[in-house]
Amino acid sequence: LRLAVVGYEPLVTAQAGRRVGLSAGANVVHVAAGRLSGADVAALRAARPDVVLLVGGTDGGDAETVTHNATRLAKARLRVPVVLAGNADVRDELHALLAGAGVPVTVADNVLPRIGVLEPSSARAAIREVFLRHVIGGKKLSRGTRFARLVRAATPDAVLTGVEVLAGTLGGDLAVVDVGGATTDVYSVLTPDERDSGPSQEVAGTLWRART
User: In Å, what is the CA distance from 92 to each residue of 58, 78, 86, 88, 192?
Assistant: First the structure.
């Protein structure tokens, strides 16, 4: 699952999007931040992503950058599925814009609704849905239709789900190291400190269920 992230700012929304992509089991092949130029779109295309995660702006915050980037993607005739998980204030407008240009688009909640608050679950589910519908089903990876019906998630996404279940059974924090042939994935499930009810000190937020 090759994922490209397009965000508003490299240390905040683009970083948040990258973390969410990893948690969804993706290989993040490209990260872009700021207003996309023609050269940026060419670089995005060259990365050959299966899915583009378009983020940017906290809810009620900057909407110009994510609107600019959605417009660029629509005009570029890039037929790569887009998961739209940015500023909720322009969600419907941008969904209509991309869909009207023939771009397959799936809407999710903002991955960074407020500075320091990272909400990955909706985007993670949307990426999984797009993976099953467009990557497994759309690429015709098997001549038979049964294969597409059998696949439930990208392998790293499934492993993280298993680690979450195991952590819940054990009732505590958990780290799992998965040594593979091509990569070594580290999964962690942590319990948020209840004494800290405010935003994380990290501007891009803390991912309490993570894969790196």
Answer: 15, 20, 11, 8, 32
In sign, the C-alpha dihedral spanning 70, 72, 76, 78 is: negative
Quickly tell me which residue has 């999964």 as its tokens.
187
In the chain (212 residues long), the average pLDDT of successive 10-residue segments reads 91 87 89 94 95 93 94 91 95 95 94 88 91 73 69 85 92 91 88 59 74 86
**Domains parsed from the chain with CATH numbers:** 2-153 (3.40.50.2300)
Q: Residue 109: how many CB atoms within 10 A of its CB?
A: 17
List, in order, residues 6 or more apart from 169 with CB less than 8 Å away: none
User: Which pTM was predicted?
Assistant: 0.84
Return d(Cα 132, Cα 9) in angstroms, integer: 29
Hey, CA dihedral for 74, 112, 158, 44, is it positive or negative? positive
Q: Looking at this protein, which amino acid is placed at residue 32?
A: A
